[in-house]
Structure formats: C-alpha cells, structure tokens
Design brief:
Largest sheet: 2 strands, antiparallel
Radius of gyration: 23 Å
Oligomer: single chain
Helix content: over 70%
Strand order of the largest sheet: 1-2
Number of helices: 13
Strand content: under 5%
Order of helices and strands: HHHHHHEHHHHHHEH
Shape: extended
Number of domains: 1
C-alpha cells in the first residue's frame, strides 16, 4: 500500500512472487505466436514514417523533454550561483540556459537534447544553414507559446522541493476539494482568467499547427526552421521520392 498510507513498511508474500512469475512465463509463451502473426516492427515503422515523417505527438514529447530539462538545468544553475555568492549572475541563469539550450546547441549540433532523444533534427525551409537569428526567433516564439507549460513545470518543481514525499502529495490532493477550489477561484479571479487564457492560447496554437498543410507551427513559419525526422535504426524506409511525395501531400 505504498503511497496510500503514510507508513514506512512494505509487505512481502511468496504467493505474489509465484503468481507474478507465472504471469511472466505465460506472457512469454503467448507473445511468440502472436508476434509471428503480426507484421514486422521494421515494416510498421517504415510505413508510419512514409505517411507522416514528423508526427505532432513526437514533436510535443520532444518539446516537453526540452522544457523539463531547461527548467531543471536553469534552477540548478541559479541555485549553484546563488550559493557560491554570485547572486547577480543567478538572476540571469534562466536567460543564459535558455540561449544555450534552444539556440547554441541547435546551431552546433542541429538539435536540442529533446529532439535528439526523439530522433528529430532542425533544418531550414530553404535548405540553407541554421542561422543564429532564425534559431533565436524560433526559440522566442515557441518559448512564449509554451510559457503555461513551463510555468507548470516550475510549479511542480517547487511543490516537490517543498514536500518531496509521495504520501505527502497524495494527502495534500485528498485535502483539496471543490469548496477549496471555488474559494481560491473567488479570491483570485484574475489569476484564474489568466490561466484559462493561457490554456486557450496553447490549444489555439496546437490547432493552427495541426491544420497547416505541412504541419508547420507559427514559430516554424516565422523563423524558417522546421523539424525533420532522423531515420530509425531499424525502420525499412521507402525510396526517397516516395517520402518527399508523402511529405508534400
């Protein structure tokens, strides 16, 4: 019952071990015949990349990874600078980390850490090099659009630093009810409206990206820098002309 009751104990049962092991063995025995009936994973990956080389969900996950990494890195950097007596520099740590993460790294390597993890890279729409001003415009527009998500990450980090225990978080969530939420909304109507406006802005931004014929977001159209998919190590890619035709379609 870890996480439900605020107690530091766990219970072990031999029957659980036997049942879990038997379930793993049964799953292994069933997975073999089923896997032989289904298409090969390489074929499925190749078909998916041919139809939609850069899926919206893949880009979103890369953005979330980048924002989470930026939030952690900037917070740690500011804390280290403040603890070593460089308080003036600590105030500028988020700006410096932002430039290094979203401008300098793509200019040097062609991708941010999140994009590299999701097998994406940045390329200019005209096929030219990644100019610093293009990456700066892209980062600023995308950063403004992602401010609500970034603020949520910082808030989550603040909550975890205040009470990092999972039972404590669950107890806090259990104490919150509808009446408390209504009270907070009545006390802070301006903040609530700002939060709703931010969520509406994020939803509008996502819809405009999805409705674009080539799936380009406003930050990509303004900067002239788009996402491109790196080839999967095991994907059976179709001929290049078919990929280009599918991308143009």
């Amino acid at each position: 019952m870890w996480g439900v009751y605020d107690c530091p104990y766990r219970l072990f049962d031999v029957d659980d071990l036997l049942v879990n092991t038997a379930g793993a063995v049964a799953g292994w025995l069933v997975a073999g015949p089923v896997a032989r009936v289904l298409p090969a994973l390489e074929t499925l990956d190749g078909r998916a990349l041919a139809v939609r080389p850069v899926p919206f969900g893949r880009r979103t996950v890369a953005l979330v990874v980048d924002l989470a990494g930026y939030a952690v890195t900037s917070t740690v950097t500011a804390g280290v600078l403040a603890s070593t007596g460089f308080m003036g520099y600590a105030r500028w740590a988020p700006v410096g980390v932002f430039v290094a993460w979203f401008v300098l790294q793509p200019m040097a390597t062609g991708a941010t850490p999140g994009k590299r993890l999701l097998l994406l890279r940045l390329e200019a729409l005209d096929g030219g090099p990644l100019a610093p001003w293009r990456l700066t415009v892209r980062a600023l527009v995308l950063g403004v659009a992602a401010l609500p998500l970034l603020a949520g990450l910082f808030l989550a980090m603040a909550v975890l630093s205040y009470d990092p225990s999972l039972p404590g978080l669950i107890a806090t969530a259990r104490r919150a009810d509808g009446r408390e939420a209504a009270t907070l909304a009545a006390l802070y109507p301006g903040e609530l409206l700002m939060a709703l406006a931010a969520l509406a802005g994020v939803a509008t931004y996502a819809l405009r990206t999805l409705r674009h014929p080539e799936g380009l977001g406003p930050h990509e159209r303004l900067s002239g820098v788009r996402n491109a998919a790196l080839p999967h190590s095991r994907a059976a890619r179709p001929p290049e002309n078919r990929v280009v035709a599918a991308r143009e379609f």
